[in-house]
Amino acid sequence: MRILIVTPWYPSAEHPYTGAFVERDVRMLAAEHEVSVVHLVAPAHADGGPTVVERDGIRVVRVPMTPGAPRSWWAAARALRRHFPGADLVNSHAATSLWPMVLARPARGRWVHTEHSSIVASSFADGRAARRARAIRRRLFSRPAVVVAVSDHLGQQIRRLGRSGPIVTVPNAVTRPSRLTTRPSEPSGVLRLVAVGGLTQGKRPLLAIRTLAELRRRGVDARLDWVGDGPLRAEAAALVAELDLEDAVVLAGAQRPEDVGKHLEAAHLFLLPTEGETFGVAIAEAIAHGLPVVVGARGGQRVFVDASVGALVDSSEPAAYADAVQDVVARTRGLDPAEIAATLGERFDDAHRLAAYDAVYTALAAGRSPGTVNPQPPSGTLGSRLRGNPHP
């Protein structure tokens, strides 16, 4: 089948990690299908490179588009129309692709949209602007034949937005290490914590730093490495200094994927007091590396954080997170990393995810609907859930 991927997020020579998860999906699909990509390039990612490139044998056409500029949407829509005739199905990604896709008018029964972003959650804020955004997004999300959500949590939000058509859950890919390393010696001395995420309000790095201070106040010799960067870096550094934690906190900045793995391998526990996640890739990858986790309670991570190897904390208090850290450390002290990683199961492996996408594509190509799937905690295989049977 010929699949056209339309996405505002995709790696380039100058931005090699932007949209890497979309590229991973493209490579996965290319194992079974003929796949091409239209990358809607925002000004911040425009690097003056060629408009047509080839990455790992996949043709990528780069089309300029400014997410907040309607005139730019029309121009992108005109470009998209030129590519539709060569595709059996179009699979757009992320909410910012919806406007040009709607304007380009793909065949309704041949359009799948995959949603990853947290923009849907912002639709439920109070106020006139949020109500207007909610009404617009309701119309936009009603247009694709099928919406794929990367978590049940996100699927529930899209349903709440007002979409009545099929919504299926196909989770993000989770990178697993080629081998699991033995965790550092039992944390009777220094307790090494690691977080992976942007230094942003939603990830709550300041709460993580205050949690570390609370642990140390309790006599725990804890250290924290925060891997990631963002607008709160200066504020985080100032709080570290204020709490006299310069020797206990490392703001490591953005790292290459292989270096992120090294940070995970050197830690005893993953700590991320996030406000909410559409999926929680960093959390899942920490578990895949054999790390117990203490994370925020809201979001897609609720499905895969097993109580035996982690804690979901519904609080914004450092003491609550410190309690959870001490409890999880005590409960998982004797566990082997492989036992922790095994709690993820196979649901995020490419074989399962490809089968899930194929079920959607095959149904649409045959003129059938894959059926409306009400997002819910996993029961059985992804394939059975796609067929609308929550209890196979």
UniProtKB/TrEMBL annotation:
Pfam families assigned to the protein according to its UniProt record, in alphabetical order: Glyco_trans_1_4 (PF13692), Glyco_trans_4_4 (PF13579)
Q: Where would one find the signal peptide in this protein?
A: none
Keyword Transferase carried by entry: yes
* Record's keyword terms, sorted: Glycosyltransferase, Transferase
InterPro entries the UniProt entry points to: Glyco_trans_4-like_N, Glycosyltransferase_grp1
**Record's compositionally biased regions (Polar residues):** 371-382
Residue span(s) of domain Glycosyltransferase subfamily 4-like N-terminal:
21-172
> Which residues lie within the region annotated Disordered?
367-392
Its recorded name reads D-inositol 3-phosphate glycosyltransferase
Its lineage opens with: Bacteria, Bacillati, Actinomycetota, Actinomycetes, Micrococcales
